[in-house]
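REQUEST ID: PR-0412
SUBMITTED BY: lab tech R.K.
PRIORITY: routine
TASK: structure prediction, single protein chain
INPUT:
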Amino acid sequence: MVAIINRELCTGCGQCVETCPVEAISLDNEDIAIVDSELCVDCGQCVDVCPVEAISLD
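STATUS: complete
OUTPUT:
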């Protein structure tokens, strides 16, 4: 599984970026979170911290 960002819901707050233990999440040039699927370890910490529920595990 990999964390999936719903681009329409993401507000670019960056909480997921700060929480990710393997630095698999960053913000793109539109301040929307993106996930590096090769780094993501499916821990779910980003899902738990997202205030707008824009992240899910696929």
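NOTES: Residues 15-19 form the longest helix (5 residues).
REVIEWED BY: pending
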